[in-house]
Amino acid sequence: MTMFRRIAALFVALTLAFAVAPSAPAQAVLSDCTAYSNVVCLWKNAGADGNIWRQTTAQVPVTGCRYLSESGWNNEVTTVRLQTSLSYVLKMYDSSNCTGTPVDIYPGFTYDFSGNPWNDKFSSLKLS
Ligand SMILES: [Ca+2]
User: Fold this and answer.
1) How confident is the model over 100-128, as pLDDT tens digits?
2) CA of 57: how far to CAs of 24, 76, 125, in Å?
3) pLDDT band at 28 (very low <50, low <70, confident <90, very high)
4) From ligand 1's centre to the CA of 101, what distance in Å?
5) Among 8, 17, 36, 111, which one has the highest count of C-beta atoms within 10 angstroms of its own C-beta?
6) 19 CA distance to ligand 1 centroid (A)?
7) Which residues pair with 54 in a beta bridge?
């Protein structure tokens, strides 16, 4: 084989390796939230990266509490955004049942808790 053919064969092999490699879970971006109306968005990583938890505001109770343990997101959240034109405030709690002092999340802002004591602490939420 000529050197060129060796390199070409190697390139094809590498291309195939990447093509058939199991794909990682899709990494979310900010637009996976901002493209929607009236949604609550949580990301596992800083900078609205990693897996996304996105629910409509109708799916997050005003009276009552949404438990993140039910979806495997307990103590996993780093980035939060409330994407709505409605006058809601999102209340995020360390406790599992919306008790204690919440962190208030206002609409239209992206909150990145990396390096913050609240990082990977949120366990429940509600709207107010
Ligand atoms: Ca917690």
Assistant:
1) 999 999 999 999 999 999 999 999 999 99
2) 29, 20, 11
3) confident
4) 12
5) 111
6) 39
7) 41
Distance of CA 82 from the midpoint of ligand 1 (Å): 19
Q: What's the gap in Å between 100 CA and the centre of ligand 1?
A: 11
**How many Cβ atoms from other residues are within 10 Å of residue 87's Cβ?**
8
Predicted model pTM: 0.79
Check residue 10 and give left, alpha or beta (phi > 0: left; psi -120 to 50: alpha).
alpha
Distance from the alpha carbon of residue 61 to the mean position of ligand 1, in angstroms: 19
What is the CA(95)–ligand 1 centre distance, in A? 5
Q: Give CA–CA dist 72/56, Å, rounded.
A: 18
What residues have a C-beta under 5 A from ligand 1, the ion?
75, 94, 121, 123
